[in-house]
Design goal:
By secondary structure, this protein is α+β, with helices and mostly antiparallel strands. It contains 3 helices and 7 strands.
Length: 138
């Protein structure tokens, strides 16, 4: 009985190894061909100068629908996804920023299908100095 088990495990080992490798290759190829869609929530970080503040309604997150293979999505973690809009060198005013797929933190193999909202409007003003107390009139 022990000899039959040993023969079962070691007999035709070359053919078994080739069959296993071929199975893994075909499975990997089949999974790579199938594209899936996933929706991610990408955090929006707005950087302004120290003497400015954002007065418009801010967008915390944008929704991004992406398409790619399972292997392409493997390295993406939701908490690592963020987009930074740097307005620190700009004067106070109203700015419109469109979200281009190239600025999003996805790989080259992942195709971006939809970004919601596609653009945001940011209004900044100078911070008010609260050092002087305004007198209250009766």
């Amino acid at each position: 009985m022990k000899e039959k088990i040993i023969f079962f495990l070691t007999g035709y080992s070359r053919e078994k190894l080739i069959a296993l490798i071929l199975t893994v290759v075909i499975y990997s190829f089949a999974i790579d061909i199938n594209e899936i869609s996933r929706t991610y929530s990408v955090k929006v970080v707005i950087v302004t100068a120290e003497d400015q503040t954002v007065v418009s309604e801010t967008v915390e997150n944008i929704k991004v629908k992406a398409k790619g293979s399972v292997f392409d999505f493997a390295g993406i973690k939701d908490q690592d996804l963020s987009v930074t809009i740097d307005l620190s060198s700009k004067k106070p005013g109203k700015y419109t920023r469109s979200f281009d797929p190239s600025i999003l933190p996805f790989g080259e193999k992942i195709k971006i299908e939809k970004i919601t909202p596609a653009e945001i409007v940011i209004k900044t003003v100078k911070k008010e100095q609260n050092d002087k107390k305004n007198p209250v009139r009766d």
